[in-house]
Amino acid sequence: NAGVTQTPKFQVLKTGQSMTLQCAQDMNHNSMYWYRQDPGMGLRLIYYSASEGTTDKGEVPNGYNVSRLNKREFSLRLESAAPSQTSVYFCASSEGYGGLYEQYFGPGTRLTVT
Amino acid sequence: QKEVEQNSGPLSVPEGAIASLNCTYSDRVSQSFFWYRQYSGKSPELIMSIYSNGDKEDGRFTAQLNKASQYVSLLIRDSQPSDSATYLCAVCPGTASKLTFGTGTRLQVTL
After folding, report:
1. Do B101 and A43 touch (CB under 8 A)?
2. Which residues pair with residue A74 across a beta bridge?
């Protein structure tokens, strides 16, 4: 039981390049989330999927797109990377959506945009 | 005012002592509260959740919630060097809402 997995672990992009961050969970959770973590800013929600087939914007969605591929997988796409997107990206999942449900995090992707 | 506030630290406590980590929040209707531990370079790991006023104990950890005063705290008894990490407080204003995270308190447990 791997929990939440993310690929890749590290990535360096040049400004303007695109990439997709992959996330998968094997806990049969309904809800999945993408966060970014920057020094002094805490974890900020980019997008979330409350259930399979739905996605919604979080606090900082600009420059990102997401796809809930199936119940297990939730991907985050950067169409044209910018240096401001240099960050650590975490995927999380929970049994259901909202405050009654605990969120469990993946190991993260460290992205640098030059 | 930030929605969730934590002292960034570092909070330094000797091994075996009680570490007390505090978190205040601004939204009076907040319903759910979570403590995560994050080691340097790693992902947040859930320690405890608390939903009702009072104390909730789990091993060496005790979460305390006071909704009237809008604060939640985490006590770590018999602190160990392995407890040295950043502790994140997360608050959810309602049952169908998103978590808001504090920036974390760095704890150092010294030998």
Report:
1. yes
2. A68
What average pLDDT does the segment B22-50 reach? Answer: 94
Judging contacts by C-beta atoms under 8 Å, the chain A residues touching residue B32 are 99-100
Q: Any idea what the Cα angle at residue A41 is, between residues A37 and A45, rounded to 5°?
A: 55
pLDDT of B1 reads 64
**Distance to chain A for B99, nearest Cα, Å:** 7
At which residue do the structure tokens 């009680």 appear?
B18
Residue B96 has which token pair? Answer: 């169908």
| Confidence check: pLDDT of A32 > 70 | yes
Per the CB < 8 Å rule, is A106 touching B102? no
Instruction: Tell which residue, A88, A93, A94, A91, has the closest CA to residue A106.
Output: A91
CB contact under 8 A, A43 and B93: no
- In SS3 terms, A38-81 reads as ECCCEEEEEEEECCCCCCEECCCCCCEEEEECCCCEEEEEECCC
Unique residue bearing structure tokens 């975490």: A90
Nearest to B6 by CA among A42, A99, A90: A42
